[in-house]
Specification:
By secondary structure, the chain is an alpha/beta fold. The protein contains 19 helices and 38 strands. Strand 11 and strand 12 form a beta hairpin. It is globular. Strands 17, 18, 19, 20, 21, 22, 23 and 24 form an eight-stranded mixed beta sheet that branches. The two termini are 19 Å apart. Bound molecules: 2-acetamido-2-deoxy-beta-D-glucopyranose (5 copies). One 2-acetamido-2-deoxy-beta-D-glucopyranose (NAG) binds next to loops. One 2-acetamido-2-deoxy-beta-D-glucopyranose binds next to helix 19. Keywords: Glycoprotein, Hydrolase, Protease, Serine protease, Signal. Pfam families: fn3_6, Inhibitor_I9, PA, Peptidase_S8. This is Subtilisin. Belongs to the peptidase S8 family.
Amino acid sequence: MRHSRLHLFVVLIFVLQSFSAFAVKKSYVVYLGEHSHKPDVTVNDLHKVTNSHYQLLSTCLGREDAKDSIFYSYTRHINGFAAVLDEAEAEAISKHPEVISVFLNQGRKLHTTHSWNFLGLEKDGVIPSDSIWAKARFGEDTIIANLDTGVWPESPSFNDEGMGPVPSKWKGICQIDNKAGILCNRKLIGARYFNRGYETVAGSLNASLSSPRDSDGHGTHTLSTAGGSFVPAANVFGYGNGTAKGGSPKARVAAYKVCWPPVDGGECFDADVMAGFDAAIADGVDVISMSLGGDPSDYFKDGLSIGSFHAVKKGIVVVASAGNSGPAAATVSNISPWMLTVGASSIDREFNSYVSLGNKLHLKGESLSPTALPKHKSYPLIGAVAAKEANATVHDAELCQAGTLDPKKVKGKILVCLRGVNARVDKGQQAAHAGAVGMILANDESTGNEVIADAHVLPASHITYKDGVAVFAYMNSTKSPTAYITRVRMELGTKPAPVMAAFSSRGPNTITPEILKPDITAPGVSIIAAYTQATGPTGQSYDKRRVLFNTESGTSMSCPHVSGIVGLLKTLHPDWSPSAIKSAIMTSARTRDNKDEPMLDSTSNAETTPFSYGAGQVRPNRAMDPGLVYDLTTKDYLNFLCAMGYNETSIRKFSDRSYKCPKSYSLLDFNYPSITVPHLTHRTTVTRRVKNVGASGTYRAVVKSPAGISVKVDPVKLEFKERGEEKTFKVTLKSKTAKAATDHVFGSLLWTDDRHYVRSPIVVKSA
Ligand SMILES: *[C@@H]1O[C@H](CO)[C@@H](O)[C@H](O)[C@H]1NC(C)=O
Ligand SMILES: *[C@@H]1O[C@H](CO)[C@@H](O)[C@H](O)[C@H]1NC(C)=O
Ligand SMILES: *[C@@H]1O[C@H](CO)[C@@H](O)[C@H](O)[C@H]1NC(C)=O
Ligand SMILES: *[C@@H]1O[C@H](CO)[C@@H](O)[C@H](O)[C@H]1NC(C)=O
Ligand SMILES: *[C@@H]1O[C@H](CO)[C@@H](O)[C@H](O)[C@H]1NC(C)=O
């Protein structure tokens, strides 16, 4: 209902604007639903589709040359096209009966390898027999696609040593052929690029960039995290030395480059992302990893949501990053119920660099600076505000922004900079540029306890907010403060871990509050993985260093961890649906840390909630054998859209020509592996259905009630005689008091046969 109203509002604005028709041309996606090609679709059939798109546009606009404005025709699975139009034209075509939606080609943003050890897949380089790696043959022959900034094909992580012939189901191509010959192999089996949507916004790219080659580093890092081969003696400046590998080290990987150098509005545009999805589905991939996103919007006006729906319908699992807009609430992106949305948390490894102050205080920080200060001598310490250029503002200077620091004041000293606005590594560069010998990078209050090991260009240490306050207090207390920064030392076994990263985007879901997002969390802080040779480890143009491996932090890094785990589950259970795999990952997750205490939030150092971690920290060895799954079919997703108020005619075009919206369908009954009741009035009952994917057995319900809420499960026992059997149950939630808390409260529902623990978070807010 909410949507149809919104739609009306938009149309009104359109009408008003078309009076002052300035005819500004922009690129749009015109979405028509899905194709129903026969399996033996020919090139000729695809041409016919393209021609029908030309015709539709020409008829709509009443001119022959209309087809010239089309720059993509989606012909495989997604039906639609992308075209440069003015607003009046976009409005006209949106009225055509075949059209589901017309939306702007929006820009999105991009959001070692000890993490596998931390997740229990290996232990000190040895793979235990109960590891999913052993059982799932390292993800053998699963095909993982990555929609990102492309790939550096020469990276050792894409070596194809010991790999057999490319699986026959693969239909993709390799567009990296420059002069050196085709650079794909039996590991990196495909590489394509899509930039026409970007070029309509940013202008033509330098021809040398028109390739799937990764000039940024992000795509190489994420793809190798999901499916990189084994690479012995991988390290960053000697730190973290070990064997690098992805989650599915024996999977095949394919890069779909849809992200380009950032311009106003973003770096990955909807029209290109949709072209990437359409190609990847047709190419025969099993998993699509997507570490990018933007503000959530209407499901039918979001290329990421549309593309991923068509992929999931074909049995492909789509894993997406939650975004890096935390710790504020309601910041999570990629909220479609058919995506598996991943938040980011820390691992139990630190790259420590201690700060010793002149007052004998020792503070633990992190860094990956390859250089160290000359041995044990104290250096004068200065805050960036005291070191500012006369023309700079206090705020710009405290952040150590370019051109704000006075070299005369900084030279030979350790400079204290505040986190925020410009890149952490850029602050180090500005400090070095002004002549500092070292940098202390202090968190602000919102980033709290989250410290990150970056490859700074000078000796540096990133410290917590609390420690930063101690540094400032010390500087205030004396005329000539001094400090020393120790050489970086790797330490394992950090406790507590995981801790939720401050940057990880949080729920609630702003489009459909009945669906908890993110779904899961995985390692995303200081992750070592492969990198491009086109740029230095800080990604800044002044950084002339080149590294084969680099550390990066973000939900962009946690997303491919889960994609790699999905690759393993696909090898192990080729017949499981995307939602069964997602359910297995969610219901087997853990909400406690390595001290066996509730997971903390690095912002506040307090207990965190499902709004940051969803079902919890991914636990791959448990996901292999979840016992029960909450399965979903395409029909369930369509019912979900009906309940959201989408028009039945549009839903039919979207997926299933004969589909009928049910008479009544509650979003609360959507068979999701988590339970969220955003407006509890007195009493609410939700329905769920579980499918047995294990042996026969009896499961009983164990409830942890949210504060002030009573929870009744009916029945409390479920008996399964055979595999594949499904059982339905109801959960009734009731406010215990007349005047219930209006804040969110959290609990859980667990089904157990004493061998399996099938856990779902419960999130409730009283109306
Ligand atoms: C395009 O890129 C090439 C190689 O990086 C460079 O030599 C050339 O100057 C660039 N051209 C433009 C117009 O930027
Ligand atoms: C990394 O480890 C390998 C094997 O243990 C060793 O040969 C190599 O020298 C190490 N490299 C660094 C930089 O420590
Ligand atoms: C301030 O002045 C310095 C040197 O005179 C200059 O390099 C810098 O760009 C200026 N900064 C700002 C913020 O205008
Ligand atoms: C240090 O002194 C400055 C300026 O007087 C003040 O704003 C700041 O709050 C002080 N910081 C601490 C931690 O005492
Ligand atoms: C759905 O949309 C179509 C075309 O946009 C319209 O003709 C139809 O009346 C709508 N149906 C409902 C039930 O609103």
